[in-house]
Amino acid sequence: MDFAGAYAPENLKFLMQGLYVTLKVAFFSIIFSFILGALVGTLRYARVPVLSQALAVAVETIRNLPLLLIIFFTRFALPEVGLKMFQNAEYAAIVALTVFEAAMIAEIVRSGLLSIEKGQMEAARSSGLTYVQALWHVILPQALRRMVPPLVSQFISLLKDTSLATVIVLAELMHNMQIVAAKNPNWVIPVFIAGALIYFIVNYVLSLLAKRLEVRQV
Questions:
Q1: CB 147 within 8 Å of CB 210
Q2: How far apart are CA 121 and CA 138, in angstroms?
Q3: Alpha-carbon torsion angle 114, 120, 121, 123, nearest 10
Q4: What is the tens place of the pLDDT at every residue in 73-130?
Q5: Are the beta carbons of 198 and 15 closer than 8 angstroms?
Q6: How many angstroms separate the CA atoms of 11 and 171, rounded?
Q7: What sections of the chain are H helices per DSSP?
């Protein structure tokens, strides 16, 4: 094993470039999936006729599909029907991760809302608030406190799932690790140790952030 050669400045710089792409894809996927997932989860909780049932079917379908299949579909199938923008691996990865993670987040949000006692909604409505006002001002704030741990756990999973985008040649961290490791057989173990440490540090920071948020919500 050649640690010195594997950790040469140019190799570390290349790995950091991959980390940048990983964080960029994860960042946009987290933002978009949270917005979409929160909307879908809330609509399912509200039990809007027809719409809630349709969303339930969509969520359950997506949750039971492999993420890798969704990535392949987004990157290779959508361009075939005229959506050429998804020939860009970065766009394809963000959309695939957003769709998949939004389905997971929708269930977290719905479960969080359902965990609030029904009496809270009834009390809010009896005080003169509309259903939407009661949901926004009374139910959601309480539910969010209970959602923080599973949401952060899901975001950590999302960040790790970005590594699957290496199959569509997205130049993220895992992709760049493979390129560096392929240059020299003696670099394989050092490079993957470095990659594992990078993933661990980033995810551990997210875990610490989640704990701080939990403490502040108490």
A1: no
A2: 8
A3: 170
A4: 999 999 999 899 999 999 999 999 999 999 999 999 999 999 888 888 888 888 888 8
A5: yes
A6: 14
A7: 3-6, 9-46, 51-63, 67-72, 89-114, 118-126, 131-134, 140-161, 173-183, 188-217
